[in-house]
Amino acid sequence: MKKPIIIATVAAAGLAAVALAGVGLPTAAHGDAGISRTITVNGTGTVKVTPDRAGFSFGVDSRADTARSASAENAQAMQRLIAALKEAGIADDNIQTDQVSVWPSTDADGKVTGYTATGSVSVETSVQRAGAIVDVASGAGATNVSGPNLTVGDTDAYEAQALHRALADAKRKASAVADAAGGSVGAVVKVVEGGGGEPFPMAFDSARAQAKTPVEPGTVDTTAALTVTFALQ
Questions:
Q1: CA 61 to CA 121: how far, in whole Å?
Q2: Can you give the chain as a three-state secondary structure string?
Q3: I need a labelling partner for 16 at 20 to 30 A (CA). Which of 31, 79, 107, 124 fits?
Q4: Backbone angles phi and psi of 86, in degrees to 5
Q5: What does the alpha-carbon distance between residue 186 and residue 159 come to, in Å, rounded to a whole number?
Q6: pLDDT tens digits, one per residue of 158-201
Q7: With pLDDT > 90 as the criterion, what percentage of the chain qualifies?
Q8: Shortest CA distance to 148 belongs to which of 159, 156, 137?
Q9: Is 155:203 a contact under the CB 8 Å cutoff?
């Protein structure tokens, strides 16, 4: 299943760290000939985007007296669930097995009283169809439902916007520092891009899937972080 790329916030705990480096040095800073004074600042840029993809995990628990029976029952239940999802229009590429497990149940004395088998699949669909797919999975026997993990399928354009805003933010901060130092901002000497992590999925309680399940996309932030060094004139 294709995983969308997401740029997440990488900001320092103390917000923009601003450094005035190399002021008054007779030789070039950072190896750039002719540049003796520089300013280094952090800039961030954020673009709010409406998610268009939703990810869920659907699973089934099966209980029986033996591990073999529990496993066989769970396999049949998962086959029905997967068939229902495919019949609802979920492509093979957007269905992926998450887990297959079997474990014993015991009483207070430690005696085995039966076995539980669990299977689950990850499913990706459009936000518009997310509620309907949850209803299909619940109707097909899913006893465990988690999600949605709301993401943006194509982030390239938003990523570029966020980078432009981050550079503009860095230049604004550098201008303030240069003004305080009695100078002005010159050309960009060096740019370092920050990295990030992925957002956590939101929990979903399958017990609430009685009526038509609503899924509201809201917005997610696409954020870029840059560390930029400018010449100080």
A1: 12
A2: CCCCCCCCCCCCCCCCCCEEECCCCCCCCCCCCCCCCEEEEEEEEEEEECCCEEEEEEEEEEEECCHHHHHHHHHHHHHHHHHHHHHCCCCHHHEEEEEEEEEEEECCCCCEEEEEEEEEEEEEEEHHHHHHHHHHHHHCCCCEEEEEEEECCCCHHHHHHHHHHHHHHHHHHHHHHHHHCCCCEEEEEEEEECCCCCCCCCCCCHHHCCCCCCCCCCCEEEEEEEEEEEEEC
A3: 31
A4: -70, -40
A5: 26
A6: 899 999 999 999 999 999 999 998 999 999 999 999 843 333 33
A7: 64
A8: 137
A9: no
Contact call for residues 88 and 21 (beta carbons, < 8 A):
no
Residues in the chain: 233
pTM of the entire predicted model: 0.61
> Which pair of structure tokens corresponds to residue 105?
């149940």
Q: What are phi and psi of 143, to 5 degrees?
A: -105, -15
Q: Amino acid identity of 136?
A: V
What tokens were used for 62? 């099966």
Q: Which two tokens stand for residue 131?
A: 């509620």
Q: How far is 91 from 104, CA to CA, in rounded Å?
A: 34
